[in-house]
């Protein structure tokens, strides 16, 4: 048994050493396998990155440029980058075999996609092509072609870029030129250099006889429906042939909005396309150099012949709205252009505005004067013109415009005062001024509830002229009574006997008033009704006159009561209540 067990022990010992050997071999083989796997994966990746499969060669050389071609281009681009950037590749033998093939493929791909893309770009030149649809549905599908050329064919990329730039510059310039020519046929001329506030309406020159009289051409001074253009800011641009077919003509600001609507939409679309397709925003500036030049040439011609201050202010407001639209779109491509338009419009507006001021300052009072107390046409023009500009300033609070309107107000004030002095009677002068001021206030109120400083000024001068007129009117009918009340009735009766008022002094006044006060009031009523063009204003003035008369007569009555022996005149005194009753009759008609 002992020898048997010793034999087992020896066998177990040899098995144990065998297991140890096997364990070591196994670990060694595991390490080798791991190393081989690592080497294989690296090699496989290297082979995959560097190898040029025959299918790829076939597609690049003979395939059509389509989506599959785009994918193959991307693979080729990766391989080209791999062989140029990886440091391990540069020392490998495989590179020598593959590099010439890859270079030939690069050249073939670059020339093929260049020809393809240039052909697509030239399609933009065909007449009646919808450029934006072609850009979005065709060109953007192949935008990788441009990226490929940018990386692997710099020279041909520059050529493709130049071809696109040249095409779009010419196409868009032609588009805008044609659109502007069509718009020019639709233009309605509103004002000439003679259409100024202070210019006489009876024909401004030898040749203007056939033209519509300036008095009726209200658009020159009045805003009217023209303000609607600011509400139509987002409407589509005018289609000239449709407008022409309906024989419609438009003030220039309507055409200005249309042209700029087209410009904003075209520029926005082009700017976004350049950024997405070429990855270059700067390309936009080069493309639009042509269209901007075409628009500038047209706009400068229009501007140098524009004498329509309201139209110019509308364009200034439109430009501001256009700047807001572009800012909301977050597209900065028209910023400098719109600033330039604004900078061109303001001096022109100021120049035309100054022409209006000078026409008032240099007006010939003798030729402008008409023997008529109704509102003068110059004042009506002024009121409409000022109301229009105040209306256009409501949401802007433009201090520069307010300052100019104040200068215009001072000029018209001077002129209307000079015109009033042409009337010989001071009462007629007041009637003329009241009619003009009243009409001006009414027009300013129409423009907006807040006529501001200008309206307040006219309300003040209207008040002072009304006071003057009331005195003139009462003096015409009751001069002795007024003179007495103003001089004698206000004296202190207790001082000396010389100044004491006697019955004989007041009796003729009391009797005269009693005999004809009703007739006199009726005459005053007729006078007021015929003098004032605004019935309500006239009745207000009549009421003020009668109230003033009542005050004068009340003072006379009080004076009579104080006079010694004055009670004898009580039977001739008209009762105050009776006069108030008579005044109320006229108040009812008011």
UniProtKB/TrEMBL annotation:
Predominant cellular place of this UniProt entry's protein: Golgi
Family label: Belongs to the VPS52 family.
Pfam families per record: Vps52_C (PF20655), Vps52_CC (PF04129)
Segments forming domain Vps52 C-terminal: 166-469
Species lineage: Eukaryota, Viridiplantae, Streptophyta, Embryophyta, Tracheophyta
Name this protein carries in UniProt: Vacuolar protein sorting-associated protein 52 A
Single GO BP term: Golgi to vacuole transport
InterPro entries associated with the record: Vps52, Vps52_C, Vps52_CC
Compartments where located: Golgi apparatus, trans-Golgi network
Keyword Kinase: no
Domain Vps52 coiled-coil as annotated: residue spans: 1-149
One GO location term (cellular component): GARP complex
Keyword terms of this UniProt record: Golgi apparatus, Protein transport, Transport
Transport found in the keyword field: yes
Superkingdom of the source species: Eukaryota
A GO MF label: syntaxin binding
């Amino acid at each position: 048994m002992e020898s048997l067990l010793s034999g087992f022990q020896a066998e177990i010992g040899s098995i144990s050493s065998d297991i140890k050997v096997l364990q070591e071999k196994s670990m060694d083989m595991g390490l080798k396998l791991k190393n081989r796997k690592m080497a294989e994966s690296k090699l496989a990746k290297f082979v995959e990155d560097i190898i040029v499969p025959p299918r790829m060669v076939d597609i690049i050389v003979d395939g059509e440029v389509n989506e599959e071609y785009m994918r193959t281009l991307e693979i080729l681009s990766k391989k080209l980058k791999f062989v140029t950037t990886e440091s391990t590749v540069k020392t490998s033998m495989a590179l020598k075999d593959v590099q010439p093939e890859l270079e030939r493929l690069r050249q073939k791909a670059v020339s093929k996609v260049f020809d393809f893309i240039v052909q697509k770009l030239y399609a933009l030149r065909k007449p009646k092509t919808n450029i934006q649809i072609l850009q979005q549905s065709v060109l953007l599908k192949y935008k990788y072609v441009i990226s490929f050329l940018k990386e692997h064919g710099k020279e041909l990329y520059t050529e493709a870029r130049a071809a696109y730039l040249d095409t779009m510059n010419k196409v868009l310039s032609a588009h805008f030129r044609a659109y502007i020519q069509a718009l020019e046929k639709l233009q309605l001329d509103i004002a000439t250099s003679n259409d100024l506030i202070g210019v006489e309406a009876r024909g401004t020159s030898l040749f203007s006889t056939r033209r519509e009289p300036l008095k009726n051409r209200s658009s020159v001074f009045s805003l009217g429906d023209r303000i609607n253009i600011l509400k139509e800011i987002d409407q589509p641009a005018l289609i000239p042939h449709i407008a022409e077919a309906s024989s419609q003509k438009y003030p220039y600001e309507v055409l200005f909005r249309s042209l700029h609507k087209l410009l904003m939409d075209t520029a926005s679309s082009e700017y976004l396309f350049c950024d997405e397709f070429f990855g270059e925003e700067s390309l936009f500036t080069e493309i639009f150099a042509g269209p901007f030049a075409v628009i500038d040439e047209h706009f400068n011609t229009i501007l140098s012949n524009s004498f329509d201050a309201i139209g110019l202010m509308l364009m200034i407001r439109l430009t501001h709205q256009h700047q807001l639209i572009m800012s909301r779109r977050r597209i900065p491509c028209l910023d400098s252009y719109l600033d330039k338009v604004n900078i061109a419009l303001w001096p022109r507006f100021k120049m035309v505005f100054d022409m209006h001021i000078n026409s008032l300052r240099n007006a010939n009072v003798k030729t402008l004067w008409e023997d008529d107390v109704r509102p003068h046409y110059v004042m009506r023009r002024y009121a409409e013109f000022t109301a229009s500009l105040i209306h256009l300033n409501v949401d802007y609070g433009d201090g520069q415009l307010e300052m100019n309107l104040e200068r215009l107000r001072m000029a018209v004030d001077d002129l209307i005062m000079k015109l009033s002095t042409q009337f010989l009677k001071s009462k007629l002068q007041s009637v003329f001024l009241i009619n003009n001021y009243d009409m001006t206030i009414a027009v300013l109120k129409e423009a907006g509830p807040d006529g501001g400083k200008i309206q307040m000024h006219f309300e003040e001068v209207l008040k002072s002229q009304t006071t003057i007129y009331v005195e003139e009117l009462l003096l015409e009918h009751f001069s002795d009574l007024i003179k007495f009340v103003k001089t004698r009735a206000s004296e202190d009766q207790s001082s000396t006997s010389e100044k004491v008022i006697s019955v004989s002094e007041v009796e003729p006044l009391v009797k005269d008033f009693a005999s004809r006060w009703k007739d006199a009031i009726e005459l005053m009523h007729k006078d007021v009704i015929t003098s004032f063009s605004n019935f309500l204003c006239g009745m207000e003035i009549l009421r003020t006159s009668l109230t003033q008369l009542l005050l004068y007569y009340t003072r006379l009555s009080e004076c009579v009561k104080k006079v010694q022996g004055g009670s004898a005149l009580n039977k001739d005194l008209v009762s105050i209540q009776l006069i108030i009753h008579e005044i109320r009759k006229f108040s009812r008609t008011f």
